[in-house]
Amino acid sequence: MSALFSKQVSRRAFLRGSAAVGGGALVGFNSLFGFSRVLGQEMSDDDLATIINLASTAELFATTHYLAGINGAADLGLTEPEIAYLKAAFISEQDHLELLQSLGAAPVVTEFYVPETLFSDKALFAAVTELAETTFVGAYLAATRVFSKSAETTPFAVTTAQIACVEAEHRALVRQIGRSLPNNISYAQFTLNNVSDAVPVLQAFLDGKGPDTLPTFVGPVMPPGADDIAAIRAEAGMLGYDSSVKPFAAM
């Protein structure tokens, strides 16, 4: 299946939208996944509940994805530094999720689907993770745009910008895992006008109905449990992870 995927959808084709500027950045994703709604249609801004609920769904997907990558490290052929990248990413995504939940957020779905070779094909893993992180950056920048409109929500705008910066770090590191130049852009890509515009990009991971150009989606993949979270958090000091930086909205 991995060879078939390589022939049908090259990594460059999978991510060909990522080098574009502004609103065209995810055109490649839209074409590949066959979505009709993407890239910030002209519509009213998402409300607070929509933003935090969808963001928490993205964060739960991220923790699920990174945990599966960590557990599949041998099959993926990851090096020790690469495994450390994933563990640190897992911790930060879990922190984001818990912050959102403290604000009353609830993920829209709690189970996810993935291409069947995702955690055994390193190139596919890098490509899908870059897709996800690029989308997360765009979503949090969209949230920043919405929150920055009001003095009352400005603290949240700063916090969503903080999160977008960290998601961009994840994007860079997974590009390195995929043997691409990590820091290949001058500006984080503003690809989505609203957080809800991210849904079509990631829909296949939510319902398992991927396009014919990708391997069969399988699942559901269950999210991390309390023991999984505790085990990786226990490694934070050994990894050199800095847990002292706090979200601006909580300061």
SSE diagram, text form:
Layout lengths: L1 H7 L2 H4 L12 H7 L14 H24 L1 H4 L3 H23 L9 E4 L6 H26 L6 H24 L21 H9 L9 E5 L4 H8 L2 H4 L12
Antiparallel strand pairs: 1-2
Helix pairs in contact: 4-6, 4-7, 6-8, 7-8
Q: What is the structure about, briefly put?
A:
With 251 residues, the chain is mainly α.
Describe it for me?
- With 251 residues, this protein is mainly alpha-helical.
- The chain has one domain (46-242): Ferritin, CATH 1.20.1260.
- The protein contains 11 helices and 2 strands, in the order ααααααβαααβαα.
- The chain has helices spanning 2-8, 11-14, 27-33, 48-71, 73-76, 80-102, 122-147, 154-177, 199-207, 226-233, 236-239; strands at 112-115, 217-221.
- A two-stranded antiparallel sheet has the order 1-2.
- Helix 4 packs antiparallel against helix 7 and helix 6 packs antiparallel against helix 8 (154-177).
- It starts with a helix and ends in a 12-residue tail after the last helix.
- The relative contact order is 0.19.
- The model is unreliable at 1-40 (pLDDT under 50).
- Taking pLDDT < 50 over at least 5 consecutive residues as the criterion, the unreliable ranges are 1-40
- Give the helices and strands as they follow along the chain: HHHHHHEHHHEHH
Number of strands: 2
Alpha-carbon Rg, integer: 17 Å
Helix-strand category: mainly alpha
Distance between the termini: 49 Å
Annotation field: number of helices: 11
User: What average pLDDT do the residues reach?
Assistant: 84
Count of discrete structural domains: 1
Strand content: under 5%
Helix content: 55-70%
